[in-house]
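Q: Hi! First time doing this. I have a protein sequence and I read that you can turn it into a structure. Is that right? Here it is:
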Amino acid sequence: MQVYERHLAREIYGDVLLVMAAFLALFAFFDLIHELESVGKGGYELHHALAFVTLSLPGRAYEILPIAVLIGTLYGLTLLAHHSEITVLRASGLATGELLLTLAKIGSLFVVLTLLLGEIVAPQTERMARQLQLTAKSSVVGQAFRSGLWVKDGRSFINVREVLPDIRLRGIRIYSFDDEFRLRSISEAEEGSYLPSGQWRLDNVAQTLFEDEKASVVRQPTVDWQSALNPDILAVLLVQADRMSLVNLYQYIRHLSENRQKTERYEIALWKKLVYPLAALVMMALAVPFAYIHERTVAVSAKVFAGVMLGIVFYMLNGLFSHLGIINHWTPWVAAVAPSVMFLLAAAALLWWVERR
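A: Yes, that's right. Below is the predicted 3D structure, encoded as structure tokens:
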């Protein structure tokens, strides 16, 4: 790496880190204020709220990393341009293509960091945060064991092996006890779905009944089951589609396809996960034209404000195109790639305009 590349990398990494820290502090503050409303409910205390906010930070970092890269890169390059360093580099023979290639090398770290956050860190911490929150607020839900989720419902104990993102249950076992805490029945069901009436419909149910010293088995194709377990409790335990890892998304899409169910929402989320790390490189390219506009009349703060607004627009477009893709049945990769392509074209147009001046 040449001297100017190390200088650029040092400036950009420092500025992006500063912007990221500021954003995370801001989001943590607002998240904590929101969580304070729940302090005192059940066993939810202040230290639980602090732990929940802390565990949510990797997910926040994943969401705002491209915006932080845009603002940090724009700020760093603008300061260098303000001190005429960019002008000196260009006068020394540094072409725009070489500068973009240098920024791509620097930005590769952000691409890897985004992948790590999105695939490994954020899904795990998001699940831990939701489990902590639910466990602290409710005394009926047990911790996550290897055997799955455990829920206490009156004199019954419910074990669910797997909770699917559409709030369906797999591998259900219900252990029912009498007033003297003697086991009276064990019900097993392959799958359960929630009905509008507020009950669960269990499929392929096998119920083992214990009477004195005898045991009998009753099998039924479907059973309607009333329980304290509801979608509100389960939703807290689930990771949203945008926070799921690529492997989990792919496996779930296959499951939906095999059962002839709609997959558009999850296919768009899968493509977004594939494209999103590259958004950091697009943001860095978008910052270059601002560095070339080095008139004294254009304040650094004005360029930073423009970067903030562009980052907000990018964040909004990402969500907007996802919803439009689902509503209008767009090809999933088109809905996922469109925002990044639009910003890349905007960066190319701005560079062309600046070069012609």
